[in-house]
Amino acid sequence: MLGPSGCGKSTLLRTVNRLVTPQSGTVYVNGEDTAHTDPVQLRRRIGYVIQAVGLFSHMTVAQNVAVVPSLLRWERSRIKARVDELLELVGLDPQRYRSRYPRELSGGEQQRVGVARAIAGEPPVLLMDEPFGAVDAIVRATLQDEIARIAQRLRTTILFVTHDVDEALRLADRIVVMREGQVEQHDTPLRILTEPATPYVAKLFALDEDARRYDDLRAALSRVQQ
Amino acid sequence: MSYMFSHLSQIGALTLQHLGLVFVGLLVALVLAIPLGIIAARYPRLGTPIFGATGIVYVIPSLALLAVAVRYLGLGAVPVILVLAAYAQFILVRNIATALRNVPAAQIDAARGLGMSPWQQFWRVEVPLATPVFIGGLRLATVALIAIATLGGYVGAGGLGDEIFLGLQRKYVEQTLAGSIPAAALAVLADALFRLLERTSRAHLSW
User: Fold this and answer.
1) Separation between Cα atoms, residue B93 and residue B91, nearest integer Å
2) B118: distance to nearest CA of chain A, Å?
3) Of A23, A47, A81, A98, which has the fewest beta carbons less than 10 angstroms from its beta carbon?
4) Residue numbers of A between 115 and 134 with CB closer than 8 Å to B
């Protein structure tokens, strides 16, 4: 879900786990009308990652990751194994990170824990609200690659909110372009690039500037070679 | 000083009695302050009248409030404990509300989004994160109540106020000091103890 800030993409995302109740319309998760499910139970089956991460600062990394499994009343040994498995999955050595506190981690490491915590209960759906918005560009690129890898491995459906066009193109199978509370277009990246439905979409995905920069670079390179 | 040292066991007993008044006063205060603080934190619109009401109690001179309490409840520990509890409201309610409001919004959002029930959110996230600030408020309230509890000597509730008021009546400064010095020491000690607790809990519980 892509759009400028304030366009309603986060609100739309938050209707999925009923953090926001829609005034009209119906939200289905796995074919089930969410209006008729207990929101607390619903949320335990849906992963949730936010830009501010929101790791519990009074809990260790392991305790944070274990939150949903313990809400689901998994057995202790199963939770412990799951925590280690997840830390490895997100690229954090369990031995080194298990008993650390969030304040001792870098921004990138914190969000890795945030992702691990969100998928700990094996949710079939994962909501991510600008998850990499607060980390620097290099870390962001790494985290994007890893989330793509994790999504492939877990076969989890991810709803991902961003205002970054490149991030959307890099990660999405389908993109929902939003503006001022309305969906402008909902399609594959390729079709959005080649057949934008509205002038707004066309402008958002315009290649002009990148193309110009690419040409500039080529020109500079050829001068160096000469 | 000779009075103090020749009456050590008596002063010791009065000190314990004094602590008892403060402790019970604080306990009664918390029974009211905790729900009021939670309500004020949850519903900011109710916060203003709640803070206002506790503030009004706070600005009434404690001796005047005690006089009124004695008129209805008679002499003894009961009116003193009630006055102590009433005074502590101003500090405790405000502090509990602040402590809860200061819990980072992102952690509350995460707690909800991950599927904690409101009850679990409160006990597993909000309470632990609010604890260091809460202990700070408990410290302020305790120190204030140790001072105010000396009024107990005036209405037959005992405590270190006994020595202070008897000394004043007899114009016997040494006896007055034998009540006020231990009271001051108690306040300093309580302050240090709670500071230590506050620091320990902060190290464990927050950023």
Assistant:
1) 6
2) 9
3) A23
4) 117-118, 127
Whose tokens are 């000469």? That residue is A226
Tell which residue, A175, A179, A200, A169, has the closest CA to residue A188: A175
Q: Which residues of A touch B203 (CB under 8 A)?
A: none
Give the chain B residue nearest A47 (alpha carbons): B114
Q: What is the ipTM of this complex?
A: 0.86
| Chain A interface mutation, best of B114, B124, B205, highest count of A Cβ atoms under 10 Å | B114
Q: What pLDDT digit, counting tens, does each position of B167-183 carry?
A: 899 998 899 998 999 99
For B56, other C-beta atoms within 10 Å of its C-beta total 10
Average pLDDT, chain B: 92
Place of tokens 């991950």: B114
- Taking CA atoms, what residue in A is nearest to B104? A54
Q: Strands (DSSP E) along chain A, which ranges? A: 28-29, 32-33, 46-50, 125-129, 157-161, 175-179, 182-187
Put simply, whether A68 touches B (Cβ < 8 Å) is yes
Q: How many CB atoms lie within 10 A of CB A28?
A: 10
When scoring A58, A72, A99 by the number of chain B Cβ atoms within 10 A, the one with the most, hence best to mutate, is A58
Do the strands A175-179 and A182-187 form a parallel or antiparallel pair, or are they unpaired?
antiparallel
- Residue A114 near residue A134, CB atoms below 8 Å: no
| Whether B149 contacts B25, CB under 8 Å | yes
Residue pair B58/B144 in contact (Cβ under 8 Å)? The answer is: no
